[in-house]
Amino acid sequence: MFEGLLSGLGALADVTVLIMIPVGVVLGIAIGAVPGLSATVGMALFLPFAFSLDPLTGLVMLLGIYNGACYSAAIPAVLVNTPGSPTSAATTLDGYPMAMNGRAGEALTLSLISSVIGGVVGGVLLILFAPLLARYASQFGSAEYFAIAVLALTMIATIGGKGARLKAVLSAAIGTVVVLIGFDPFSAEPRMTFGNEQMLGGIQLIPLLVGLFGIAESLKQMERLMLKPHTKAAVGSFSPGNRWFRKYRKTLLGSTAVGFGSGLLPGVGGDIGGYLAYNEVMRVSREKDTFGKGNPQGVVAAETANNASNMGSLVSTFSLGIPGNTQAAVLLGALLIAGIQPGPGLFSSSADLVYGSFIAMLIAYVCLLAFGLVGIRGWVRLIQVPPHFLWPGVLLFSILGAYAVRNSLFDVLVAISMGVLGYFMSKVGLPVPPLLIAVIVIPMAEENLRRLLILNGGDFSWILSPVTLVILTLAVVIVLWPAVTPLVSKVMSHDNEEAAPRGR
Amino acid sequence: MSDQNRFASRRGINLYIFSVIILIILGLVFVVSAWTIPSQGLPGDSGPRALPVAATVLTVVLLLACLHPNQRLNSEVSVSQVRQTALLVASTIGFCLSMDILGYVIATTVYATLATFILGGRGLIKLTFYPVVLSLGTFVLFRYLLSVPLPVNSLIGAF
Fold first, then answer.
1. Would you call A226 and B38 a contact, using CB atoms and an 8 Å cutoff?
2. Most buried by CB count within 10 Å: which residue of A445, B2, B10, B133?
């Protein structure tokens, strides 16, 4: 690992790479501060540009956007009760009431400090954990990879409530259909191409991402323009208060652990990490009734956890090639487009790239702290950009981003189609992350499964290999768990009812 | 009357059912296409058809399940919003198709003016200055800084 860190440091000794770190952070802050323009949208928009740079420089810029936008999503969450991205949804719970109480500046400074602490500690944990997992995963074969892909898909499908589960599965099914368009990897038969030669190569990742995020989001936001009047909020003092570290150190520590741990699970994003940490802090607090009414601890917990969770999400992304969250799926796309195969082999074949990006993220958080503190008053103004200027611009950048990949108008039409698909999906309440994760994971699952079937003559005995069996059992337990828990609690309550008369 | 009340008072359309039906039709088209894929693969292989058929059929079945009243959402939007979104999509497609003929700068200026107007931007500066700056700015950025060869006007061979 130390050799890797040294090679990473060596790779960062390049002016272009070092410049791209703050550039990415500034872009990220600017993007995240605008409601609707999440880190994913920003990364998707700049993916074509990153693609034109060398892999490390492009990756470092995207990671800067990732970190910057993750923090600045808290700005509109605090000021206008609208999180810049879902990761900051839990921040609104106490951030906005703080703003209503005239403490918006304090909430913003606390969210910045918490983001930096959560991100830096999470980044250190990422450097420690990812190589360990990669070393273990380097012994994996097709069976284990197939099992991991199945696990990732089942975890996505089980997030959320009963209705959300069906829609998450549906979204993943749509993603599967989209990713299967093109040549079959084994027989080279065209699949669902409708005789169109340009579709034989499949749906390109950049038009898909730009369409699903940039164009769909623009359409949704432009539609809302007619309903939501533009808001201006009072900010107040930016001081985080006296002895803030002493006051919040336990919250910072606990929320980092909860956030990072939740991020390790594929498909569990910073939004869930933020809520988990918020609930945990509220559960152990002596001032439970102040939560939701402007308790700074709520902001600290949510922001620390979502940044730590984003770091945790990168563990499986880099070491297994399984995206931990939507933004990580965009990063994976960037790596694949650059011809780099993510997974355990990456740590030995491209140690400079992996460790260089990890160290760059730590530097990005230092930049974030500096830009955040210096420019906080300016960033706040970004939420007041007139929307009829902003969204046509975003739409245009999305179109150009799709066009720039192959200078093809066909890709632009694909991006618009994906944008319209994303728009209709939003009307049905279908979440986009399962679709995107299916797009990344399904080819891996199909390729490994069919390779195993061909090698074993259609036999399924490979399922009995210990690691595969454990992972697949875990996937089955995760799928069955929501159905089993009500039955268990029903049986237990029935037993208690029977025991009660006997006890009387 | 405030903007919010003005739009809230208009009769809305629930786009939920409409969107589900559109997606079902699309799903059925893909089911038919998936069925036409040859099923034969290498010995032991599930073949190229199995997964596409499974995925498309599952999509249609789950979309049908979305029609159940318990799954429905209130995606109500006003008629003017639907019209606005449809106009935006149509103008975006028109913009893409006209880029090759009009060239990037002219097509973008026309498109940005149209989009700003549809979104409620009014006044000479908003409708002329902003679109021109946007089209020229992105032209310089993509053409000269990122070396992306943007389409040029087929008549004058530039912009």
1. no
2. A445
Q: How many Cβ contacts (< 8 angstroms) between chains A and B?
A: 193
Amino acid (1-letter code) at residue A28: G
Joined together, the tokens standing for residue A341 give: 């195969």
pLDDT for position B63? 95
Give the B window 107-136 contacts with A, CB below 8 Å: 108, 111-112, 115-116, 119-121, 126, 130, 134
Mutate to test the interface with B, among A424, A449, A456 (most CBs of B within 10 A): A424
> In 3D, which of A443, A480, A488 has the Cα closest to residue A179?
A443
pLDDT in tens, A21-60: 999 999 998 888 876 677 888 888 888 788 778 888 989 9
Give Dmax (Cα) for chain B. Answer: 71
User: Residue A472 pLDDT > 70, yes or no?
Assistant: yes
Question: Residue A414 and residue A177: Cα distance in Å, rounded?
Answer: 15
Burial class (CB in 10 A: 0-12, 13-18, 19+), B129: exposed
Residue A403 has phi, psi (to 5 degrees) of -70, -40
pLDDT at A422: 92
Q: Return contacts of B144-150, CB within 8 angstroms, 24+ apart.
A: B146/A49, B146/A52, B146/A404, B147/A52, B148/A400, B148/A403, B148/A404, B148/A407, B149/A407, B150/A400, B150/A403, B150/B99, B150/B104
> For the segment A380-394, what is each residue's pLDDT rounded down to a tens digit?
666 666 777 777 888
Q: What is the pLDDT of residues A271-307, one digit of tens each?
A: 677 888 888 888 888 887 888 888 899 999 999 998 9
pLDDT reported for residue B33: 95
Alpha-carbon gap, residue A291 to A145, rounded angstroms: 43
Give the 3-state DSSP-derived string for A111-179, with helices as H, strands as E and coil as C. Answer: HHHHHHHHHHHHHHHHHHHHHHHHHHHCCCCHHHHHHHHHHHHHHHHHCCCHHHHHHHHHHHHHHHHHH
